[in-house]
């Protein structure tokens, strides 16, 4: 039986490596990407490595592509086993580094992709996830969304002050918890992954972990057994060089 995984923003970075690692486990990966050329190239690269990979055009801020992708997956596969909401943007407008100079427009832009996009995609494919035997939803979040981490004066995140990206991940954490609760009795597990600080285009390749390492927590949560947790933020623990649950 085919196990399928849809990964948004899978043409590069952590999303691409997630697709690669899931494919290596024999899972058919649906490579979501907003740019057809980049998405097709990523799917072909995975295919050349022996993966069952298909490009799916998916801009998480574009209703039409979301509905089209969900309909296509339904027609091709009938159900969906794994949804990885990975696509995100950092924002990074000039004023975004301090609350006092943040524009509502840049905040809106970041939330449109990092939060609203996740809900739009999840709701569109939820009927397909419900048809799978034991579906998993992984929302790729971040330690910078952790309120506890952000307020730790001795922690690595204390110097950060920007609102848009961190608050989008805090919102995503709550979104994760709410889906976990709604789907509690269905067998569908919903968790948030923390990749750790990885070198990708999102941060000008400044991270100290590789994108492939960043994909590991997502793959763990996407392949949880029946007795695994739901409603957790789980992944890289900064300073401990280990994986585990993080405080919200
Ligand atoms: N890198 C880190 O240190 C780090 C740490 C914690 C969490 N994360 C999270 O990890 C995830 C992956 O990030 P990354 O570091 O791999 O960044 P990345 O290399 O910049 O990749 C982001 C991906 O999201 C896609 N994307 C952006 N907006 C989209 C939209 N509207 N619709 C569909 N796809 C869209 C991008 O597509 P295009 O190529 O078309 O732009 C790209 O494929 C994100 O959720 C990020 O917040 C990253």
Question: Mind explaining what this structure looks like?
Answer:
Keywords: NADP, Oxidoreductase. With 248 residues, the protein is α/β, with parallel strands linked by helices. The protein has a single domain (4-245), classed as NAD(P)-binding Rossmann-like Domain (Rossmann fold). The chain has 7 helices and 8 strands; from the N terminus they run βαβαβαβαβααβαββ. The chain has helices spanning 13-24, 36-48, 63-77, 104-131, 147-150, 164-182, 211-222; strands spanning 4-7, 28-33, 53-57, 82-85, 136-140, 189-194, 233-237, 242-245. Strands 3-2-1-4-5-6-7-8 form an 8-stranded mixed β-sheet, sandwiched between helices. The model has no long low-confidence stretch (mean pLDDT 97). It binds NADP nicotinamide-adenine-dinucleotide phosphate. The site of NADP nicotinamide-adenine-dinucleotide phosphate (NAP) has 32 residues, from helix 1, helix 4 and helix 7. NADP nicotinamide-adenine-dinucleotide phosphate (NAP) is lined by residues 8-9, 11-15, 34-35, 38, 58-61, 86-89, 113, 117, 140, 142, 195, 197-198, 200-203, 207, 211, 214.
What brief labels describe this structure?
248 residues, alpha/beta, Rossmann fold, 8-stranded mixed beta sheet, 42% helix, binds NADP nicotinamide-adenine-dinucleotide phosphate
What fraction, in percent, of the residue positions are helical? 40-55%
Strand content: 15-25%
- What is the H-and-E element order? EHEHEHEHEHHEHEE
Q: So, the CATH homologous superfamily?
A: NAD(P)-binding Rossmann-like Domain
- Morphology call: globular
Number of strands: 8
Number of domains: 1
Structural class: alpha/beta
- CATH C-level label: Alpha Beta
Task: Return Rg in Å.
Answer: 17 Å
Bound small-molecule species: NADP nicotinamide-adenine-dinucleotide phosphate
Pfam family, one: adh_short
Protein name: SDR family oxidoreductase
Family: Belongs to the short-chain dehydrogenases/reductases (SDR) family.
InterPro entries: CBR1-like, NAD(P)-bd_dom_sf, Sc_DH/Rdtase_CS, SDR_fam
């Amino acid at each position: 039986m085919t196990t399928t995984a849809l990964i948004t923003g899978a043409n590069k970075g952590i999303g691409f490596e997630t697709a690669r690692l899931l494919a290596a486990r024999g899972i058919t990966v649906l490579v979501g990407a907003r740019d057809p050329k980049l998405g097709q190239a990523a799917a072909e690269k995975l295919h050349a490595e022996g993966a069952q990979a298909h490009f799916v055009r998916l801009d998480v801020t574009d209703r039409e592509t979301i509905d089209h992708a969900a309909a296509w997956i339904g027609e091709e596969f009938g159900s969906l086993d794994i949804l990885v909401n990975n696509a995100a943007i950092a924002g990074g407008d000039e004023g975004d580094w301090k609350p006092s100079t943040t524009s509502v427009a840049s905040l809106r832009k970041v939330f449109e992709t990092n939060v609203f996009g996740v809900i739009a995609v999840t709701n569109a494919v939820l009927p397909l996830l419900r048809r799978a035997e034991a579906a998993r939803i992984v929302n790729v979040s971040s330690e910078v969304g952790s309120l506890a981490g952000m307020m730790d004066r001795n922690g690595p995140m204390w110097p950060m002050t920007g609102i848009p990206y961190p608050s989008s991940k805090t919102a995503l954490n709550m979104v994760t918890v709410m889906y976990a609760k709604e789907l509690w009795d269905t067998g569908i597990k919903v968790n948030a992954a923390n990749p750790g600080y990885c070198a990708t285009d999102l941060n000008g390749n400044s991270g100290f972990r590789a994108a492939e390492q960043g994909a590991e927590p997502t793959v763990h949560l996407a392949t949880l057994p029946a007795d695994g947790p739901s409603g957790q933020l789980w992944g890289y623990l900064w300073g401990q060089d280990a994986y585990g649950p993080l405080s919200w």
